[in-house]
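Intended use. Records like the one below are meant for learning the mapping from a protein sequence to its folded structure. Do not use them to infer anything beyond what is encoded.
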Amino acid sequence: MKYIFLYSSILFNILTNVGFNLSAMNDGVPFKKWGYLALGLVFGLINSVLFTECLKEIPLQVASAIFFSLTIVGLFLIAHFGFGEQVTPLRVAGIFVITAGVVMVSLK
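Structure written out for the chain above:
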């Protein structure tokens, strides 16, 4: 139960970055550009509130390791499946290294 705030903040952090990416992709359409940017900022605010709440129950070192690594993994998947970015063996290896690092940091 105590990890709900953390995992929710990860989701909103991913949505923040997706909003920023969509804003950058719509540079020629000001309404879309600023709309996606505003949406990304709102998601960023929600992310910050949720992450702050999770720190009441989860140590910073563990929460940050999980937060940043799962954000990277989530963005990797969104970039590939949502935006068609290339997957290379080196990037896949990096995801495994990140995952192993999180497991190591999270162990007591």
